[in-house]
Design a protein that fits this description.
By secondary structure, this protein is mainly beta. The protein has a single domain, classed as Beta Barrel (Porin). The protein has two helices and twelve strands. Strands 1-2-3-4-5-6-7-8-9-10-11-12 form a twelve-stranded antiparallel β-barrel. The protein is globular, with a radius of gyration of 19 Å. The N and C termini lie far apart (39 Å).
C-alpha cells in the first residue's frame, strides 16, 4: 500500500552561465529556499478515536498535527507542530452575523493575530473566505485584508492570495501512486518560498470548518 506522504525529488531550475554567479551570490547572501514547500495533508488524527489532521513533508517527516479537532464539544482548535507544541489556536467568533473565526498565537486567547470570514457575497462565487489583520489592541475595529482564498475546497482546488494578489499557497489533489487513487482526505498543500506554512495550514483547517460537509465541526 503506498504511503500518504509524497516521495518527491525537487530539481532546481537551470540558469545560464552569465547568470550563474549572480544566482549563487543571491542564494548565499539571502539564504532563501527558491522551491515551494510541498506538504501532504491527511485529514485524520494519529490518535485513536480523535478527529484532526496529520501533515507530512516530502521526506515523510511529521510537520503539523491537529489532534483535538472536533473531539467532543471543544470550543477551539489547536494547530500543533510535530512535537505537540501549540502554534496557533482557532476559535469561532461568537455573536457574529457571518461565519467568522479568530486565530491566536500559541495557546493564548487574547489579542488575535487575524480573523477569517466566510464569503457571503453571492456575486463573487470564486471567493471562499478572506483573512484580515485585527489591528492593535487600541484600534481593534480597524481591519485590513491580508489574504483571500478562492476556488473549491470540496474539489481540493484552492488558491490563497496575499493583499497584492500574489499566490502564497495552493491546495491540490494528490496524484495517484502506482495506480492507487487517494480520496479527498489526502491532498497536497503547496506553499511558496518565504511564506510560513503555519498560516496556510491554519487556513486549511478553517476551510474544512466552513466547507467540510459531513466533517465534525466544533461548537462554541
Amino acid at each position: 500500500m503506498p504511503k500518504v506522504y509524497p516521495k518527491t525529488v525537487v530539481i532546481p531550475a537551470l540558469v545560464s552561465s552569465d547568470n550563474k554567479q549572480r544566482f549563487l551570490n543571491e542564494s548565499s547572501t539571502a539564504g532563501r529556499n527558491l522551491n515551494p514547500e510541498i506538504l501532504t495533508v491527511w485529514k485524520k488524527s494519529l490518535l485513536f478515536n480523535c478527529y484532526g489532521f496529520t501533515v507530512f513533508d516530502t521526506k515523510g517527516n511529521l510537520v503539523f498535527r491537529v489532534d483535538n479537532y472536533a473531539a467532543g464539544n471543544k470550543a477551539e482548535i489547536v494547530l500543533m507542530d510535530a512535537s505537540g507544541r501549540s502554534l496557533l489556536t482557532i476559535r469561532r467568533k461568537r455573536l457574529s452575523l457571518t461565519e467568522s473565526w479568530l486565530v491566536y498565537d500559541g495557546e493564548t486567547t487574547v489579542n488575535p493575530r487575524f480573523s477569517v470570514t466566510k464569503n457571503v457575497n453571492f456575486l463573487n462565487t470564486k471567493s471562499l473566505a478572506h483573512v484580515s489583520t485585527t489591528g492593535s489592541p487600541k484600534n481593534r475595529n480597524k481591519k485590513n485584508v491580508a489574504y483571500e482564498i478562492e476556488g473549491s475546497y470540496s474539489q481540493r482546488s484552492c488558491v490563497m492570495y496575499d493583499d497584492r494578489r500574489r499566490r502564497i499557497a495552493e491546495l491540490k489533489r494528490k496524484e495517484a501512486v502506482r495506480g492507487v487513487v487517494f480520496g479527498g482526505d489526502v491532498f497536497r498543500l503547496v506553499v511558496q518560498p518565504e511564506i510560513d506554512s503555519t498560516i496556510p495550514m491554519a487556513l486549511v483547517v478553517l476551510l474544512d470548518q466552513m466547507f467540510g460537509g459531513h466533517s465534525r465541526k466544533f461548537t462554541s
